[in-house]
């Protein structure tokens, strides 16, 4: 108990220190982010853009699809270009011709090698020189650069409008004509793209050869290449990771794990009677399965758009379901069904752990369910309407889609979801309260479950931290607080603690051992995970300290994953501990799959892109998608399915249970995911990485590469894996239908106020 108390103390110290450092970095980002000039002017005094236009342009881009329609500074979707990299390259090309005409009265293509060298030097100097005046808040451009800006702006205004000459390009970008109907918004959009591009090339004040985005993207025409710090901190992070893994292996080998207890002769939970609130969670799980099927369907449509930008096998589907909408639903539903499975698991186990059914608990579970259903349906429909009918910036922000990846729902829906999560934590807490206030070997585990639930509710508030006019660098800072810390942090702690608690209740592990192990695992995970959030922010207009801190702590995130094989093997051994454990076979196998994908998807594929030098070249390319698919579904998805199966085991008739269907579901989902990732996404990502390294990020994201024969073949090569995966999801749906027809278990008749049998805390 004393050792466990010390671990809790260390956990508190690490959390406080890490979040203090993360907030300090946030302050530095706020102070040192690329400035938005009050005016962008030419030498003649013409005003090209104002600060209000740049901010309006940011809103216009987000309302037109935002991070579902290309990327800015590398964050977003993969079919359309990175607009900051694309503008930078187009402006450099425009300057080449303008300087060539001024100096040699001919086009750049007709110049000799010596003349081109002179022009290239002029272009680089023009784009790297920072002419922003801090006193007047004005960015003054030379007349020749102002002309280049006007030429490039004309291209984007036509692209987001209805210029028929750009129809082919729009199809290649999977974007509809008239994405921004208002001419004023298209003009403002070009201001935002110009500003985001200017920040990638202009030297920081007091620096030479180092832009606001630390020279991202790779662009030879302006001299953008990795900074010294990018390389040094990458090497340092790898050395730190190897040393930390060695230390963990040494610690693990020098501390012999206590053997698991002799399992009970019968299932300890077989006599547990489902209370009304436990039975009320069943509908959550059937909605989870429905969301999985919808997510798979929208994923297939989204992937196909990268070949036929407007059509689905010839049918003009984009007229009613644009790429931006299908991808928004695909990514949002992934988070929503995983979160719903975990929320329902918490509500299901609360009476079991607490030993009684709190008064009105079922009512609370029902109210929360219909509230969450209203939020999912309402946010999806409003997001679709806002996109199809072009309802504008204000509607998109408040009710439609904010255009931000994984956090797309409008602000009203975010408020409602925040309240819903707090209500969930309240319901969970009142169910666990008897066990929390009673001394027991498992109280530490129960406390970890409750604290992580509180953090899940409270930290969703970070989605409310930005507004319509917030600086883009700060939007990205707060967005990753939510996506990284909420999804990859507290949910994982919650799920790990729940699994340990369930195993201890089944008598497969010792509660006292699990107490210390979970706190120690949480310390190791959060020590790297909290400040590891910064690896998402290397190139988003942040100080160079972000590369140092993010690179080092992101490397530490891999350390606990290096030991995941041991835990997976132990879980496999536990699945054979006693004959009755076979009842939970597929839940346990899902947990083992989590270990595999944690090591491969989060560990190998994650670290392959997370070092600064790697991410410099591959951010926003398909290697990021490979990591995302393997980690999001392989880790969090399989974890959600495993927890769901555990709960459904106690909520449905055992006569209706079909291990044969679950076997097909399990292997098809995992094999399909592996095929999708390693047959298509990884090769496509490597091909794009080579293009990025040799010619620049603009080229890796250009139609010449995206729609090359190789890349389109990779899209078609996804089809076998997608089909296998989809069939696995259908087996899960058939399994659910079988459970629905099978009815409820006969013993599930306990009154709400009756103690739950066999579950003393």
Automatic annotation (TrEMBL):
| Transmembrane annotation, as ranges | 7-26, 231-251, 284-307, 334-355, 367-388, 412-433, 445-466, 478-503, 515-539, 545-566, 586-609, 629-648, 668-690, 723-740
* Domain Nitric oxide reductase subunit B cytochrome c-like per the UniProt entry, residue ranges: 37-218
Q: Which SUPFAM superfamilies match?
A: Cytochrome c oxidase subunit I-like
Is Transmembrane helix one of the keywords UniProt gives this record? yes
Q: Which Pfam families match?
A: COX1, NorB_cytochrome_c-like
Q: Which domain of life is it from?
A: Bacteria
The keyword Transmembrane helix appears for this protein: yes
Task: Fetch the InterPro entries from UniProt.
Answer: Cyt_c_oxase-like_su1_sf (IPR036927), Cyt_C_Oxase_1 (IPR000883), NorB_cytochrome_c-like (IPR054309)
Which terms are listed as keywords in the entry? Membrane, Transmembrane, Transmembrane helix
Q: What is this protein called?
A: Nitric-oxide reductase large subunit
Q: Which organism is it from?
A: Massilia solisilvae
Q: What is the lineage of its organism?
A: Bacteria, Pseudomonadati, Pseudomonadota, Betaproteobacteria, Burkholderiales
